[in-house]
Specification:
By secondary structure, the chain is α+β, with helices and mostly antiparallel strands. It is built from 5 helices and 10 strands, in the order ααααββββββββββα. The strands form 2 sheets. Strands 2, 3, 4, 5, 6 and 7 form a 6-stranded antiparallel beta sheet that branches. A 4-stranded antiparallel beta sheet has the order 1-10-9-8, covered by helices on one side.
Length: 235
């Protein structure tokens, strides 16, 4: 079952992304195979397709916690693989110049550049850009990237505006001012990047569940009490 599901996902992605990259669907299929394999392993052990619901529930309750921990760890690894492959293969990037009132498109998002305004911080001054982000004609976020100048340290930093979602993370970085009132702008979109951290947390949870199984606990060895030396007869 896990192999069939994984193969179907690979074929679907190859059909959608015909121009490549060609190895990305295989990587996503590997992640799906890890997740589906963990689920089918549990289903096999509880006889999901052969036993009655009462028997399945009894087997689920009596299944060792180490089995659940192992399934969680493998599923977490699958999520991490999917996140890494998607972020590496389908990452979008755009470097352009925008004037206030102009828009840019990236990864299905439309960003309207509304301009730059000065702002005074506690120990710095900055120029803050304002971007209205829409998707499918619906406003989803407002990004406020900035360039900061620290007066005492005589140094500067760039603060990115970030819109985080399960679909991916959208970044907007404000650059230097150009001619005719335009600004250089860098846009990035990292798809499914949150699956990397979600997978890591699921793997951590799986390890904790496995260690809670008393069969896997190893106590510190106790030193045996010394036996008294034998006494010869007649002494």
């Amino acid at each position: 079952a896990a192999a069939v599901v994984s193969l179907a996902v690979v074929i679907l992605l190859l059909a959608v992304y015909r121009k490549g990259p060609w190895l990305a669907p295989l990587g996503i299929g590997l992640g799906v195979w890890l997740i589906a394999g963990a689920l089918t392993e549990i289903g096999y052990r509880v006889k999901l397709t052969d036993a009655s619901w009462g028997e399945i529930w009894r087997r689920l309750r009596n299944l060792p916690r180490a089995s659940y921990g192992s399934a969680l760890a493998h599923a977490g690894l699958g999520f991490t693989v999917i996140g890494i492959v998607a972020t590496t293969a389908w990452r979008s990037e755009a470097i352009l110049s925008l004037k206030p009132g102009e828009s840019a498109e990236i990864a299905g998002y439309s960003l309207l550049f509304e301009g730059v305004a000065p702002h005074q911080g506690p120990n710095y001054r900055e120029r803050v850009g304002r971007f209205k982000v829409t998707r499918n004609d619906r406003e989803v976020a407002e990004l406020l990237p900035s360039k900061r100048e620290f007066m005492i340290e005589q140094s500067g930093t760039t603060e990115a505006g970030i819109h985080a979602s399960w679909r991916g993370d959208l970044y907007a970085v404000l650059g230097d001012s150009l001619k005719d009132g335009a600004y250089s702008v860098r846009l990035y979109f990292n798809p499914l990047v949150r699956l990397i951290w979600l997978g890591a947390m699921i793997m951590f949870l799986g390890g904790a569940v496995s260690l809670s199984d008393r069969r896997l606990r190893v106590g510190a060895p106790k030193r045996a009490a010394a036996k008294p030396a034998p006494i010869a007869a007649g002494e």
